[in-house]
Design a protein that fits this description.
The structure is a homodimer of 148-residue chains. In chain A, 10% of the residues lie in helices and 36% in strands. Chain A contains two helices and eight strands, in the order E-H-E-E-H-E-E-E-E-E. In chain A, a hairpin with a 2-residue loop joins strand 7 and strand 8. The longest helix of chain A is centred in the middle third of the chain and has 8 residues. The N terminus of chain A is likely disordered.
């Protein structure tokens, strides 16, 4: 195995336990690549769930708008904050009870697709995840269409 | 640093010393992700060239059509074949003297854009790379438009 290929994350963020196949969406949510090193694992072994995608980014602190979107990618996504090469904090992402301006409604007749209103979704169930449009009451379905 | 995140490549291929920013194009050339684990480094430190992109794929043998395209991404791209966790072979990619059906000609009046003829480019210089259309003699310019 050629080395050293794996840069050691000193200060940054690890988005872990992404479902296989969601890494590209996660990179898009985070606007990566930008400045600084990024490593991506796709379909790599996971002791917990068999396989996963994973992203590690140097010098990146996530905003709420980004973690809300990452939470929608899968039920087990975690974010670890790394400082000085060690895990300083770790949080399991949860979809908020209400999402405003995060995903679009797929109902072509919904008023949010005709007026300048931010789409609003309520989380009516957590596991499995169920999101319902607050305006027309249609349920969202995966893959959720993110608002950029 | 959470571990173990870096799967150890046992049998597969490492595409190394890609220029920063070319990993996405390299993944597209190789049709990744497919089956099996893939890790991608973007803008990671390189002892030789400062920074690089790198891709490691389990269970993948590259075809000539793929290595020809990868060679066009940068002047220092290497491919390492890994077997049993060790580097079995390593080659520095070179752009062939003639490319047939690999990149398109950007000259809208070139006959290759009007007739069903495979575009042909001659490598008239290696470093820096200069490719010239064999039909209309226009020089290709980066980023080269790959034929899928």
């Amino acid at each position: 195995m050629p080395s050293p290929h794996d840069f050691k994350l000193q200060d940054g963020t690890v988005v872990d336990h992404l479902p296989v196949g969601t890494a590209a969406r996660a990179l898009a949510i985070l606007g990566l690549p930008r400045e600084g090193p990024v490593t991506v694992g796709m379909n790599v072994p996971s002791t917990r769930y068999g396989h996963k995608d994973i992203i590690r980014v140097e010098h990146l602190e996530l905003r709420k708008s980004e973690t809300d979107r990452l939470a929608l990618l899968g039920p087990h996504v975690t974010v670890a904050i790394v400082k000085g090469g060690r895990v300083a904090d770790k949080l399991r992402l949860e979809v908020p009870e209400r999402l405003v301006g995060v995903i679009r409604c797929t109902n072509p007749t919904c008023i949010t697709n005709h007026e300048r209103i931010s789409p609003v979704f309520d989380r009516v169930a957590a596991s499995p995840l169920q999101l319902r449009c607050a305006y027309c009451e249609r349920f969202g379905s995966e893959p959720f269409p993110f608002i950029a």
